[in-house]
Specification:
Rossmann fold; five-stranded parallel beta sheet; 2 domains; 14 strands; about 350 residues; alpha/beta
Length: about 350
C-alpha cells in the first residue's frame, strides 16, 4: 500500500477544528469532504459520509482538543466509518496529539496513555498518522504505521528572525525543551539558556528553580511545545527579567491556554506569545499579546506530498518556498496581534 499513488485526494474534518481543515483545503485548492459527525442525547457519536470514498486517499483532520475524549472518539469512529466505506487509504491528521505527557511510567502503577491512543488509532484502521510537534519524540515509536511529524519551529524561528531582534538568547522552557530551543537558537545564531524547573505533583504546577545560562542584557525567546495554564511560563519569564533579560518573548506550538491562562499572559512581563493554530483559539482568548501563525500551508503541503509519494522531510529544507512564506502570515483577529 505504501508504494501506491492514489488518484483522488479527499479531506474531511471532525468537529475539533473545522477552520483549520478549511484552511488546508484552501491551500490545496480542493473542497472539504462532506460528512456529518454529531452526538445523540445518550452521548453516542454518529458519523455518516455523504459522498463516495471508495479507493480514495482520505485525510481526516482532527486535533485532540477540548473536549479531548469526545474528539478522540470522533476520530476513531470516523476512521472506522471510512474503512468500512472502502476508502483506499486513511490518514489521521492530528495536529495536536493529546495525552503526550503520559509517554512513560514515571510513577508506580500509572498508564502509558500515549501508547494506548496509538493502539486505538491503529485498531480503528488508520493507515498512517500526520501530526505536529509531539510532546515526546518516542511517541512515534508507539505506532506500527508510518508517522510524519511536522514541526512549527522553523515557522516560529522565521517569525522572530523577521522581527530583527538584537542580542537574542533562546531559552528552553525546561530541560525537555532544550533540543527544540537549540534548533531555534541555531537558526537565529543565538546562545541557549535553560529554565530549570521541578514538577512536584500531578496538579499541572511546576516550580521554577533557576536559569542556566547568561541572559543579562539580552532579549529572551522562550521555546516550548505547548502552553497549558501559563503559570510556569509566566514565572519563568519573571525570573528571566530578574536575571537581567531586557525583554521576554515566547514561541509555543500548541496553545491549550486552559483556565485563566490568557489573563496570566496579559498581566505578565511577556512582550508577545507566538503560537500556531493546531488548537482553535476562541474569541475570549484572543488577547493582544498573542499572535497565531497558521500551520495550514505546512500541513496542506505535507498532505500533498504524502498523496503523491514525495518526501515530507524536504519541507524543512526549503525556507523560501510558498508554504514557508504563507505560514508566516498571521490570521488576523479582533486584537492587534490576536488571531483565531
Amino acid at each position: 500500500m505504501e508504494g501506491r499513488v492514489y488518484q483522488e485526494l479527499r479531506i474531511f474534518s471532525g468537529n475539533a477544528h473545522p477552520e483549520l481543515a478549511q484552511s488546508i483545503c484552501h491551500y490545496l485548492e480542493t473542497p472539504l469532504g462532506e460528512c456529518e459527525v454529531f452526538e445523540f442525547s445518550n452521548e453516542n457519536i454518529f458519523v455518516r459520509i455523504h459522498e463516495n470514498v471508495r479507493a480514495r486517499d482520505v485525510f481526516i483532520v482532527q486535533p485532540m482538543v477540548s473536549p479531548v475524549n469526545t474528539r478522540v472518539m470522533e476520530l476513531l469512529i470516523m476512521i472506522d466509518a471510512f474503512k468500512r466505506a472502502s476508502a483506499g487509504r486513511v490518514t489521521a491528521v492530528v495536529p495536536y496529539y493529546a495525552y503526550g505527557r503520559s509517554d512513560k511510567k514515571d510513577q508506580p502503577r500509572v498508564p502509558i496513555t500515549a501508547r494506548l491512543l496509538a493502539n486505538l488509532i491503529e485498531t480503528a484502521g488508520a493507515d498512517r498518522l500526520l501530526t505536529v510537534d509531539l510532546h515526546a519524540g518516542q511517541i512515534q515509536g508507539f505506532f506500527n504505521i508510518p508517522v510524519d511529524e511536522l514541526t512549527a519551529l522553523y515557522m516560529i524561528s522565521r517569525y522572530f528572525k523577521d522581527k530583527e531582534l538584537t542580542d537574542v538568547v533562546v531559552v528552553a522552557a525546561d530541560e525537555g525543551a532544550s533540543k527544540r530551543a537549540r534548533n531555534v537558537g541555531q537558526s537565529l545564531k543565538a546562545p541557549l539558556a535553560i529554565i530549570e524547573k521541578r514538577r512536584v505533583a500531578n496538579d499541572e504546577q511546576a516550580e521554577v528553580l533557576n536559569v542556566i545560562g547568561d541572559v543579562r542584557g539580552r532579549q529572551a525567546i522562550v521555546i516550548d511545545d505547548e502552553i497549558l495554564t501559563g503559570s510556569t511560563l509566566v514565572e519563568g519569564a519573571a525570573m528571566l527579567k530578574e536575571q537581567g533579560a531586557t525583554a521576554v518573548y515566547a514561541g509555543v506550538t500548541h496553545a491549550i491556554l486552559s483556565g485563566n491562562a490568557t489573563e496570566r499572559i496579559e498581566e505578565s512581563c511577556i512582550e508577545e506569545l507566538i503560537v500556531t493554530d493546531t488548537i482553535p483559539l476562541p474569541p475570549e482568548k484572543r488577547i493582544s499579546k498573542i499572535t497565531v501563525l497558521s500551520m495550514a500551508p505546512f500541513i496542506g503541503e505535507a498532505i500533498s506530498r504524502i498523496h503523491t509519494g514525495r518526501s515530507v522531510g524536504e519541507l524543512f529544507h526549503m525556507p523560501s518556498d510558498k508554504e514557508a512564506e504563507e505560514a508566516l502570515t498571521p490570521i488576523r483577529g479582533t486584537g492587534s496581534r490576536a488571531t483565531g
